[in-house]
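Hi Y.,

Following your request, here is the sequence exactly as I used it, all 284 residues.
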Amino acid sequence: MAGRLSVVLADLHMHSTVSDGWRDPDEVAHLAADRGVRIMALTDHDTFQGVDRARSVAHRRGLGYVRALEVTTYPPNQMRHVLGHGVDVKHPRLLALLDRTQGVFRRQSEAWIAVLHEQGIGEDLQLGALAERPTLMPGAVLKVILQHGVMTEKDAWESVRRAVDFMPPEFYAPIPSPKEAVEAIHAAGGLAVHAHPGSVPDQDLMKEVLPLVDGLEVYTRRHKPEQIPVYEELARRHGLLMTVGSDYHGFNGDDYEAPRKLIDIRYLEKLGSRVEWPVVEKAG
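Below is the corresponding structure, written out as tokens. Let me know if you'd prefer a different format.
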């Protein structure tokens, strides 16, 4: 097993239409398989809604699958996102935490839709129907706006800010701290990984997170080449395993590019049985 896994191409950070991605969970899994990925994880923001669909396709295509998500932490604008790999998707403590954050996202989205309607935008796009979705993020509204050419991406994000910038600090209070997020992931039997550290505006804020997590997502296309050695050294300094993830969203029709770095066998070994292989592969 170890010899085979040592050369595995894995993508442990991908998004779908369930959160703010542009492709359905099924399609995301097919894209991973088509590009030679052998182990994948759909890590939608603060929800497991797409896990079963992605896992089903992944297994039909012969891929190993890791049940996972990406947890938003406070303050949300600092991008201190924590990946939870191999979690129990029905764990009550983790689900309660996600419900809180999803409530914030929904209220943000509804506030933006209301502003758009006041400007005479979106009625013909049936943006109000988005409220019927099990999960709703501003990114889902953005997708509709851009697909119909109603606004440029820059104007759309400015519109979001106008809608939510007036929200008081307590509006975001339900969003968990990094410590609470990591503890919930661990309670649910998973491994916690700090996602795309190079995207954190205030790098000092990572100091409280790194002692808590199991790994650091060093190899991601969000990082510039010159950032990779910086975060490799940071991971070594804190004794963290380095993980690989594309953070694929399919934004505006972007094609999927699989990671170029192979996953560290030690991280796969730590995941252990959390990597779920198709039944036929187990039997073999």
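The first strand starts at residue 10 and ends at 14.

Thanks again,
Q.
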